[in-house]
Amino acid sequence: MAVLTSAPRGTQDLLPDISGKWRFAEEKLLETAALYGFREIRTPVFEHTELFQRGVGDTTDVVQKEMYTFQDKGGRSVTLRPEGTAGVVRAALQHGLLGGALPLRCCYLIPCFRYEKPQAGRLREFHQFGAEVFGPSSPDADAELIAFCAALFERLGITGLSLHINSIGCPACRRRYHEALRAFLAERADRLCGTCRERMEKNPMRVLDCKSPVCQEAVTGAPVMLDYLCEECAGHFSGLRERLDMLGIAYTVDPKIVRGLDYYTKTVFEFVSGAIGAQGTVLGGGRYDGLVEELGGSPTPALGFAMGIERLVMQMESSGCAFPEDRLYDIYLAGMGGAGRREALRLCGDLRQEGVRAGCDCMDRSVKAQMKYADKTGALYAAVLGESELEAGECTLKSLRGGEARTVRLEGLADTVRTLLDENKN
Ligand code: HAM
Fold it and tell me: Taking the model in full, what pTM does it have?
């Protein structure tokens, strides 16, 4: 493989002709997040390895098999973040954010790294939009967070996702469940992969989440957590269901959702698509009431979610979402001769000041070649600026989309074009 001209396996270039789609999605996400009281947080791409071992859990697939971990030149072990939650909790603790007004709500748009087997919708470098809420313990917060997710999809014009919810209880009720699950797995230990045989004792729920097909087969019919919930967890879950019903948010209770990260307690949920292939989980999240304490803070209930932007954009495409047109230029000015070319350059500056996307030649092309290029870029309008135009103080504004040509004054051209574009928008 040509190392110099091929990106590493599992990574993707975001090329200029589709980056506009991403930007559109990202802006809508941040804009909607603001309506729900979320502000952006940015944390480092790499953290101390221990943060993820403790936070995400050292029996998870993510920590055991998928982390990009290396020693830096100072001999410290650091890891490219495989997800966003642990870093946000670390930052909140480091900067004392949890001592301020609660709930604290923050969101992020980040690249994440997992050494997974690449396939459609599963990458080694991927991107997440995520949101975290610290403070509330009531199911009101779970319902509001899920309503926020539904609003994000709605505002992006996405259809065809279904919401699956489950409760995986708290450490107290999980103890009883672990016993039952361990007994079930012990009978099938010879059918489990090596990693699962090892983690069966320490954290049997991780076996349910193993990606190996042999393990997935062996765990059919395993006991489900919902049957083991303590009174408080059961009450929280029914409280959430009532609120979702009240908000008119459709869902399926899916006892199979355990999530692949260790920090979850009580509510877990996923938004799943049937339209983008085997990796259909567009969004996953839940409550993690023990994580802040696990990382050294005072006990603080918390919850959040993250969605994969790659999968989100795939789903937007399959839903036929109306992406805005991301054209290179509104207007292209083809300069003829030295004076014409200079005037094109000057006028482009004026046009850009008015917020008009404007372009002119910097390749020494003939007027004919410039007009051909303007057409290729998908510009709405083009005009030739030569000696006669400069003398007359006006030019012919040609519509490249089949509209009528019109004569316009060069003086005030930027204003004229701005008005024209605004009129066409309405
Ligand atoms: P997660 O389920 O591991 O949760 O990831 C969330 C989303 O990221 C997935 O639903 C998927 O869309 C996307 N994703 C994950 N791995 C890949 C991959 N290899 N390639 C492409 N997309 C991927 C978390 O990361 C939690 N931190 C979410 C959360 C926040 N829970 C509470 N707060």
Answer: 0.95
* Shortest-distance atom of ligand 1 to CA 84: 27
3-state secondary structure of 318: helix
Looking at the DSSP bridge assignments, the partners of residue 332 are: 359, 382
- DSSP alpha helices (H): ranges in 319-366? 337-353
How far is Cα 222 from Cα 32, in angstroms, rounded to an integer? 39
Q: Which atom of ligand 1 is nearest to the CA of 116?
A: 19
- Say how many Å lie between the CA of residue 132 and the centre of ligand 1: 13
Distance, CA 152 to ligand 1 centroid (Å)? Answer: 16
The pLDDT of residue 417: 96
Q: Which residues of 351-384 are buried (b: 16+ CB within 10 A; e: fewer)?
A: beebebbbbbbeeeeebeebbebbeeeebbbbbb
Place of tokens 């004569």: 407
Are the CB atoms for 53 and 82 separated by under 8 Å?
no
* Alpha helices (H) along 262-336: 291-294, 309-318
Query: Measured on CA atoms in the order 146, 149, 154, 157, is the torsion positive or negative?
Result: negative
Cα 259 to ligand 1 centre (Å): 10
By alpha-carbon position, which residue is closest to atom 21 of ligand 1? 122
Ligand 1 geometric centre to CA of 270 (Å): 10
Measure 288 CA to ligand 1 centroid, in angstroms: 15
Q: Which residue is closest in CA terms to ligand 1's atom 17?
A: 122
**Which structural domains are found in the chain, ordered by start?**
2-170+230-318 (3.30.930.10), 331-419 (3.40.50.800)
**Which atom of ligand 1 has the smallest separation from the CA of 123?**
20
pLDDT at position 212, please?
85
Question: What is the rounded CA–CA span in Å between residue 30 and residue 109?
Answer: 9
**Ranges assigned E (strand) in 160-260:** 161-167, 252-253
Task: Identify the pLDDT of residue 426.
Answer: 61
Nearest ligand 1 atom to alpha carbon 85: 27
Q: DSSP assignment of 86-143, as one string?
A: HHHHHHHHHTTGGGSSSSEEEEEEEEEE-----BTTB-SEEEEEEEEEES--SHHHHH
What stretches in the chain show pLDDT beneath 50? none
CA of 276 to the centre of ligand 1 (A): 16
* Nearest protein CA to atom 30 of ligand 1, as residue: 305
Place of tokens 């979402």: 321
